[in-house]
Every structure is written in structure tokens, then in C-alpha cells.
């Protein structure tokens, strides 16, 4: 079984994240880059499945910049067998359509039985890439699953949205996405980090994907304007005393909040 | 040229239009003539269509599809609806139901996609989507280079409302695409929560608790204040990770993003991860024992003190003031 995990490198949500006000693009060097934590849960699923099922290959696939290699390598340290990174100048600032097209082309290039993704990233928060890939590759989508049951030819799992739980099932090949209800990922240990250095790490450009993706000819979503919100100013700060509650109620009343 | 704006409407588990529909149809009315699309729910379509017209739909298209196929029937219906309406834009909710179908529709028809818009507008060059990114730190506008924009709209973000329209209903003929889809083997609908508390997403007031609450039992204090104010209950990631409340309560970059009129943070230090989910709130009140907590940097009213002392007094004072 060949499992491809879609890996996204994102700015760490524990730090400050900035956008360049001239290009509108994320300032990658201004924040710590990490594998998106939801992706790590997907990796954990794939790697533990591989540990229990001989003959399973786990491939980490990402579309990013060359600098993201270090982040993607962490997937190898966790236990993925090899990594494929698509890097191309023409993909700078790619929108959802282009991203999905490139990932779909890379997936066809690699080959797969199951694609595993996170349900949505912490930076883009769109949550539509897995569905877009399913459409482009014409494979069943089982997105936002709370757990996965995987057999050699079938994948199933529950998807909960607010009060509705759907039980989804499909023959392979298929794409699944995982939610935060999946198990916490393992830490990459020293042995894993050392082993990762010897694992295959392939960097591909668009032309090497054998795909006919014309970046300019399809409609693209483009950013037309960007404004940074002025930082919020602190208001009053008081040390609690006997009258605090009373003053707070007056404050809420004055602002018509009670 | 058509002025139709195709709007995919979500239906809630009770068979009513989802809360997002009012804003979607209101937003569509700013751009042109809202045409609503409802897929499935055959047993409720009369009431759903009437509700859509009430919210501003000039036409309501009703489509049926294989109820056991996941997502693809909705995409097929969108394709058919776009075929008969020739829309200038396609809108839907940034919801579990809406966003995936819209993204797939865009892939299939080769349209540009704008995700998680908080507003829409039209200028001389066409339809513009407005976004609030990185937890409200940036306001961004986007448009598509050409073609019909497909826009998903953040739930509860659109304040525009449409005017009631006369009911015009059409059955939509949909040619199934035979795209491979997952099969829905089972559907389970859990009971509506018994709580009378408002839902976190879209609530006008939110009271959140953090690690400072200390335990799941003591987190009850947050709920008491929420009930005294008619507010929804939220939590910081630290409180969720400590097991005080389920993950669905989490406010922050990896949880729900809220922008209520009033946000009260109890025992929350204000990590960037948390601030990204609430810093666009109109008024922020913070109570924390640590006077260096970063939450105070963005609070309109900060109280340095123990939540277990201040909050019970506040609840009592609120009761007194209500009399």
C-alpha cells in the first residue's frame, strides 16, 4: 500500500505571523516554520499503519519553497519513508486552484492508494484542498474524519459536523482528511532524525511533473489590496479591590453591553 | 448580461435553513440578484424555499441528488444551476457543507476561488472578496483574474440582509456527473444541545476561561458568568489541553475565531495563539492575577485580581443592577 501524506509548512501559531504589505505574501523568514500540527496527526496515522502492515510505503509530499526542506524533513524523522517537494518559481503566491492542480499532478506522478491530509491548515484555514484534489483526480473524498478504518482495498470513517455524523466508505484509491480528534503525533527521536538524513528526498520542478499546468491561462484568485490592522491599544487596568465588580458593571452598562 | 448571483444554501439538521443563509443572500443582493440553490431535503423544500424568498432570493432552484453519495451531487447541482443562471458570482458558506462543494465546483468549471471572505462588494472591475487573515491582523481584498468568482463566506460575518422577494420556485434538472464519491453508509443526528446558552460561533457575548481556572470543576465559574450575561462559553487552548472543556470550546487560531461585542477573558494569559481568535472583539475585558499577562495589552478593561474573588462579586453586582 502506498500512502501519500500532504505536508504543509506553516508559520508557528505560537509566534507572531506577518504578511508582506507590498506583495501580500507570508513572510516566511520572519517566523519559525513548522509542519502544521494537523498534518502531524495525519502522518502519525500513516506511520502507525505502516508499522502494523508490512509493505506499506509512506511518502510525504509538499509544495513549498526550497527553504522548507528542513521542515519537510521532519516528516522523515517521524517515520515517513521518503519525501517529495515541489518547488518552482512560477508557484510563488499560488492560489487554491493552482495549489490543488500542482498537488494533483504530483500525486499522479508519485502514484498512491490513499492520500492523507489535514482538514485545514492553521495559516490558510480554507479547508478545501483535499476536496479540490478529489475533484481533479476523480477519486472519492472522505474528509474531516474523526477516525480511519483502512483495509487493503477500502477506507471508511465517521465525519462529524456539528450534530450530524456521517459514516463514509469508499474503495481505494481515495483521499481522506483528519481532524484534531486524531491521536497526538509522536516526537521525532534522535534515531529518527539521524535516519531521516539517509532517506530519499526528491525536489521536483513543475516541468518534471509531466503536467500541463499553465499558470497564466486559468482564472486565478489574486490579492488586490492588503492593510495591516493597527495594533489594539490597552485601555484601563485596575488592581482588584472591593469596588471592582461595581465599576466593571458600570463599564459594561456605559458600553451597552448589559 | 445576467445579474444573477448563485447562492448555495446550507440546511441544518432540523431541516431549516442554516443561520448562514441570511447573510449569504444579503451579501448576494449587494452584488446582483440572489438565486438560491437548495440540494436534497425533499420533505422540507416548500418551507425552505419560502424561507429563502423571505431572506431575499429572487428565484429558488430545487435539486435532488443521490442521498447516499457524499458531496458530488451538490457539485453536480451547482454545475446545473450555473448552466441555467449564468451567474456573475457563486457564493456559499465557509461551512463543512458548503466549502467543499464550492471548491469542487470551481475545479470542475475552472473558476477562481476566494475562501473565507468576511464581506463581498462590487466595483467597476467586478466582484471583490474581503478577507480577515491571521486572526484579524490583516484585511485583504481579492478578486479573480477573469471568469466567475466562487466565494465562500465566513459564517456570521456578513451583516447585509436582503429584502423579502415573491416566491419563485423551479425544479432543477441535474445530470449526474458519475464522479467517484464516497458512500454515506449511515447518518446519525445527535439531539440538539439542551443548553440555552448561545453557540460560540457568532455569539454577541463570549466568556472564556483559561488555565487559571485550575480544574474542570472550577471552570463552572466561567459558565456561571456566561449565564448571568446570556453569553457563550469559550476556552483557551491551555484550558482545552488541560481537559477542563472539550476542544469545541477552543477560541484561537486552531479553534473557533470569534468577534463578539463583548469578550471576557478569565484566567487567560493571552498567548498569540489565543489572541488570533478573539482580538477583533469590540470590547475586551480581562481578569488575571498576573499583571504582566499579554492579554492586558489588548484589553479595554483589565482587572488584576483573582477570578475566584472578582467573578462571584461581578455576578452578584450584575444581579443587583438588574433589579
UniProtKB/TrEMBL annotation, chain A:
CDD domains membership: ETF_beta
Keywords: Electron transport, Transport
GO molecular function terms listed in the Swiss-Prot or TrEMBL record: electron transfer activity
Pfam families: ETF
Domain Electron transfer flavoprotein alpha/beta-subunit N-terminal residue range list: 23-213
GO CC annotation terms, alphabetical: cytosol
Keyword Transport among record annotations: yes
SUPFAM superfamilies assigned: Adenine nucleotide alpha hydrolases-like
Family statement drawn from the similarity comment of this UniProt entry: Belongs to the ETF beta-subunit/FixA family.
PANTHER family: ELECTRON TRANSFER FLAVOPROTEIN BETA-SUBUNIT, ELECTRON TRANSFER FLAVOPROTEIN SUBUNIT BETA
Protein's recorded name: Unannotated protein
The species this protein was found in: freshwater metagenome
Automatic annotation (TrEMBL), chain B:
KW Electron transport (keyword) present: yes
PANTHER family for this protein: ELECTRON TRANSFER FLAVOPROTEIN ALPHA, ELECTRON TRANSFER FLAVOPROTEIN SUBUNIT ALPHA, MITOCHONDRIAL
Protein name per its UniProtKB record: Unannotated protein
Pfam families according to UniProt: ETF (PF01012), ETF_alpha (PF00766)
Keywords: Electron transport, FAD, Flavoprotein, Transport
Similarity comment text for this entry: Belongs to the ETF alpha-subunit/FixB family.
InterPro entries linked: DHS-like_NAD/FAD-binding_dom, ETF_a/b_N, ETF_a/FixB, ETF_asu_C, ETF_asu_C_CS, Rossmann-like_a/b/a_fold
Molecular-function GO term, any one: electron transfer activity
UniProt keyword Transport present: yes
GO process annotations (BP): fatty acid beta-oxidation using acyl-CoA dehydrogenase
Organism: freshwater metagenome
Domain Electron transfer flavoprotein alpha/beta-subunit N-terminal: 5-189
Amino acid at each position: 500500500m502506498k500512502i501519500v501524506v500532504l505536508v504543509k509548512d506553516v508559520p508557528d501559531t505560537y509566534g507572531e505571523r506577518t504578511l508582506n504589505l507590498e506583495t501580500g505574501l507570508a513572510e516566511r523568514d520572519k517566523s519559525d516554520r513548522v509542519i502544521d500540527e494537523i498534518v502531524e496527526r495525519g502522518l502519525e496515522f500513516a506511520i502507525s499503519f505502516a508499522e502494523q502492515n508490512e509493505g506499506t510505503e509512506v511518502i510525504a509530499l509538499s509544495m513549498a519553497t526550497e527553504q522548507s526542506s528542513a521542515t519537510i524533513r521532519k516528516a522523515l524523522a517521524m517515520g515517513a519513508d521518503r519525501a517529495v517537494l515541489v518547488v518552482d518559481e512560477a508557484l510563488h503566491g499560488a492560489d487554491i486552484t493552482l495549489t490543488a492542480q500542482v498537488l494533483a499532478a504530483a500525486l499522479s506522478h508519485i502514484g498512491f492508494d490513499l492520500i492523507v491530509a489535514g482538514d485545514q491548515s492553521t495559516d490558510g484555514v480554507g479547508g478545501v484542498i483535499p476536496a479540490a484534489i478529489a475533484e481533479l483526480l476523480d477519486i472519492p473524498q472522505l474528509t474531516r474524519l474523526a477516525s480511519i478504518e483502512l483495509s487493503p482495498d477500502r477506507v471508511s470513517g465517521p465525519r462529524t459536523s456539528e450534530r450530524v455524523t456521517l459514516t463514509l466508505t469508499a474503495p481505494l484509491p481515495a483521499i481522506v482528511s483528519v481532524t484534531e480528534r486524531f491521536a497526538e503525533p509522536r516526537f521525532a527521536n534522535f534515531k529518527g532524525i539521524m535516519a531521516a538524513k539517509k532517506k530519499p528526498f526528491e525536489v521536483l520542478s513543475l516541468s518534471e511533473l509531466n503536467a500541463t499546468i499553465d499558470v497564466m491561462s486559468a482564472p486565478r484568485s489574486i490579492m488586490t489590496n492588503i492593510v495591516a490592522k493597527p495594533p489594539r491599544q490597552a485601555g484601563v487596568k485596575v488592581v482588584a479591590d472591593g469596588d471592582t465588580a461595581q465599576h466593571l458593571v458600570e463599564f459594561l452598562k456605559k458600553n451597552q453591553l448589559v | 448580461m445576467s445579474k444573477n448571483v448563485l447562492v448555495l444554501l446550507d440546511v441544518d439538521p432540523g431541516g431549516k435553513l442554516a443561520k448562514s443563509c441570511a447573510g449569504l443572500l444579503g451579501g448576494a443582493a449587494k452584488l446582483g440578484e440572489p438565486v438560491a440553490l437548495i440540494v436534497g431535503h425533499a420533505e422540507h423544500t416548500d418551507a425552505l424555499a419560502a424561507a429563502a424568498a423571505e431572506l431575499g432570493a429572487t428565484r429558488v432552484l430545487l435539486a435532488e441528488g443521490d442521498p447516499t453519495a457524499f458531496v458530488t451531487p451538490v457539485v453536480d447541482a451547482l454545475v446545473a444551476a450555473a448552466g441555467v443562471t449564468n451567474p456573475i458570482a457563486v457564493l456559499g458558506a465557509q461551512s463543512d457543507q458548503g466549502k467543499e462543494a464550492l471548491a469542487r465546483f470551481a475545479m470542475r468549471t475552472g473558476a477562481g476561488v476566494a475562501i473565507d471572505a468576511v464581506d463581498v462588494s462590487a466595483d467597476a472591475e467586478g466582484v471583490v472578496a474581503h478577507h480577515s487573515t491571521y486572526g484579524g491582523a490583516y484585511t485583504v481584498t481579492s478578486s479573480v483574474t477573469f471568469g466567475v468568482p466562487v466565494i465562500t463566506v465566513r459564517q456570521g460575518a456578513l451583516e447585509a440582509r436582503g429584502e423579502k422577494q415573491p416566491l419563485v420556485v423551479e425544479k432543477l434538472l441535474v445530470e449526474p456527473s458519475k464522479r467517484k464519491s464516497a458512500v454515506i453508509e449511515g447518518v446519525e443526528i445527535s439531539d440538539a444541545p439542551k443548553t440555552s446558552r448561545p453557540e460560540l460561533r457568532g455569539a454577541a457575548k463570549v466568556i472564556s476561561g483559561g488555565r487559571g481556572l485550575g480544574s474542570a470543576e472550577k471552570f463552572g465559574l466561567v459558565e456561571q458568568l456566561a449565564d448571568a450575561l446570556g453569553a457563550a462559553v469559550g476556552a483557551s487552548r491551555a484550558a482545552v489541553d488541560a481537559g477542563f472543556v472539550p476542544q469545541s470550546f477552543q477560541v484561537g487560531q486552531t479553534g473557533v475565531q470569534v468577534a463578539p461585542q463583548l469578550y471576557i477573558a478569565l484566567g487567560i494569559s493571552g498567548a498569540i495563539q489565543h489572541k488570533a481568535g478573539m482580538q477583533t472583539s469590540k470590547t475586551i475585558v480581562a481578569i488575571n492575577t498576573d499583571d504582566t499577562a499579554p492579554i492586558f495589552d489588548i484589553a479595554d478593561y483589565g482587572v488584576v485580581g483573582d477570578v475566584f474573588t472578582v467573578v462571584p462579586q461581578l455576578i452578584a453586582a450584575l444581579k443587583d443592577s438588574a433589579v
